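input
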Amino acid sequence: RMVRSELVDVLHSDYIRAARLKGLSKRQVLFKHALRNALLPTITIVALDVGYLLGGVIVVEEIFALPGIGRQLIVAIQARDLPSIQAGALIMATTYAIANFLADMAYAWLDRRIQYD
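output
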C-alpha cells in the first residue's frame, strides 16, 4: 500500500515525464526511475520496524515459552544476571544498527544523488 501510494506520487513527477519524452519504454521508466525513488520511504519504514520486531520477539517468546534471545533476556532480568542482560541488549542494539546501516546502503544504491564520501 505504501509503495503504491509513493509510486503514484513519483509517476506524476517532472523527471518521469522527461524520461518518457526521451523515448524510454514504460517498463524502463517504471523500473529504472519510478520504482527506485518510490522504494526510499519503504526502506526507511522497514529498517525502523526492526526495532519493533525485536521488542515483539521478547513478548512472543515469553507468552509462548519459546526458546530464544527474548526468553533468555527475560530470564536474565528475573535472575538479575547483569552480564547476560548486557549481552542481550548488545545483540539487539547491534542488530538494529546493522539494519539501519543496510538501509543507508540501500539508499545509496537506489538514489544516485546520495553519495557517501
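quick obs: The chain has one domain: 2-110.
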